[in-house]
Amino acid sequence: MQEYILQLLEDMLSAERPQREPFEEKEYNNIDNLEKHFEDVERYLSGDYEQKISTIIGFTNEQFPPIDKLTDNQMLSIVEGFDKLLYSYNISTDLPDGLAIETAYSLLVSTLEKEVFIGEGDGFWMIEFCQYDIAKCPFGDLCSCKEFEKYHNERSEDKKSDEETLF
Q: In the chain, which end has fewer C-beta atoms inside a 10 angstrom radius, N or C?
């Protein structure tokens, strides 16, 4: 299995998007760059951009071994390589620190079926796995959705209090 993992990591490295010129150095006063930017904006707003991540990076679910066939170190290597590959395409994932490696691995592999927008510019597509519903959160106690719910409840109570004061 280790030989397969090493080949998979090498393939992910080869599939990375070539580095592009950093944002600060681009000339947005150049009409061609400005036109590309507006083309990206129009494509995004039209919804005519949906591509599965698997199509973009050239990997399928079947290429990633099942969890029960991997060691923690192998999963960690794949997670790090996969995350770096996604980042090269301006795709970022929101995984909390301290997350079990099995959960991180499963969630990252599941992104292959997600549809994203990849533009020519410098914008990032963030993949969030939490829908801010504590009962359905894949992160359990590690998630910030508890803080979101607490904030939401406090705001609701403040709003009720304000309404009661008005009447």
A: C
Q: Which two tokens stand for residue 45?
A: 């707003």
What are 91's two structure tokens?
């795709």
Nearest to 139 by CA among 125, 128, 149: 128
Does one domain contain both 109 and 164? no
State the DSSP H helix or E strand holding residue 94, giving kind and residue range, or none if neither.
strand 91-94
> pLDDT digits over 18-73, tens only?
876 555 545 555 666 777 778 888 888 887 777 899 999 999 999 999 999 999 99
Q: How far apart are CA 90 and CA 49, in angstroms?
A: 15
Bridge partners of residue 113, in order along the sequence: none
Range of the domain at 150: 132-167
- Model-level pTM greater than 0.85? no
The dihedrals phi and psi of 52, each to the nearest 5 degrees, come to -70, 145
How far apart CA 4 and CA 2 sit, in angstroms, is 5
- The total number of structural domains in the chain stands at 2
Q: Which amino acid is present at 44?
A: Y
Give CA–CA dist 16/57, Å, rounded.
8
Q: Examine the domain organization and report whether 139 and 82 are in the same domain.
A: no
Separation of alpha carbons 167 and 165, rounded Å: 6
